[in-house]
Amino acid sequence: MSLPPVPAATPSPFWWRQSTGDGVHLAFTSVEAGNLARHVGPQHDVESHRLRLQEAMGVPAGSLRFLDQVHSAQVLDADDVAPTVAPPPDGGATTVPTGDAWVCSDGSVPLAIMVADCLPVLLVGQRDRDDPRTAAVTAAAHAGRPGLLAGVLENTVTAMRDRGAVAITAWIGPGACGSCYEIPDEMLAEYATVRPALASTTSWGTSAMDLRAEAEQVLAQAGVTLAPLAGCTLEDASLFSHRRAPGQGRFAGLIWMDPLAPPHR
Ligand SMILES: [Zn+2]
């Protein structure tokens, strides 16, 4: 007697997903979610991938905010920015805010940050150390080499503190790791003295850059608690990597929150 076939598992759009006790959800998408960047793949595909992703997250279509990322240290306040809408059918331009980090003062806006080798950093700030049920300050940052050097993470932490965060935890998502991210010798020499945490060596013995070590150092110095997480886009084919496979796509770091329960009457 033959056994009945085992149904194939549905591939998850999430490479990693976690929820905190206070109703905040954090995730990084996998290649199964498809390319999410308008500047990389066919526009129609990107819009359908974004819609499917929002459905998987359980958030209203069109509520997830994306940025036009430019490797800057610019932090935007999600409360001040209108939702990113799909391009009109006539192909006209849409306005997408430019910057490399989002902060939301009460966690109510679902935030996305896109990467493929740079680090996606998700942050949750508690307003009250003793009461995790109060609305959290949430943030998402794009931390590649230029952004890290320009201070994108320092600016993000400052923006969170300005909005009342007293205890901040960060999840540094997958990027090109310090054993894979090969750079020219001159670049390493330039950073070795000013940013020693960036200096690394590839597993094959050449000059390399360790974005994660640098990000960890910056966040620790800013008093942020680091949640354990690892992952390398060059080694893991379930993530998009610009260096390994240029032009294939961008994945996203996501942070969103359950709507707060209405006050008891
Ligand atoms: Zn690696």
UniProtKB/TrEMBL annotation:
Reaction catalysis annotation: adenosine + phosphate = alpha-D-ribose 1-phosphate + adenine; adenosine + H2O + H(+) = inosine + NH4(+); S-methyl-5'-thioadenosine + phosphate = 5-(methylsulfanyl)-alpha-D-ribose 1-phosphate + adenine; inosine + phosphate = alpha-D-ribose 1-phosphate + hypoxanthine
UniProt entry keywords in alphabetical sequence: Copper, Hydrolase, Metal-binding, Transferase, Zinc
InterPro entries per UniProt: Cu_polyphenol_OxRdtase, Cu_polyphenol_OxRdtase_sf, Cytotoxic_necrot_fac-like_cat
Top-rank taxon, per record: Bacteria
SUPFAM superfamilies for the chain: CNF1/YfiH-like putative cysteine hydrolases
Keyword flag Transport: no
Keyword set includes Metal-binding: yes
CDD domains in the record: YfiH
Protein family according to the UniProt entry: Belongs to the purine nucleoside phosphorylase YfiH/LACC1 family.
Function according to Swiss-Prot or TrEMBL: Purine nucleoside enzyme that catalyzes the phosphorolysis of adenosine and inosine nucleosides, yielding D-ribose 1-phosphate and the respective free bases, adenine and hypoxanthine. Also catalyzes the phosphorolysis of S-methyl-5'-thioadenosine into adenine and S-methyl-5-thio-alpha-D-ribose 1-phosphate. Also has adenosine deaminase activity.
Protein name, as recorded: YfiH family protein
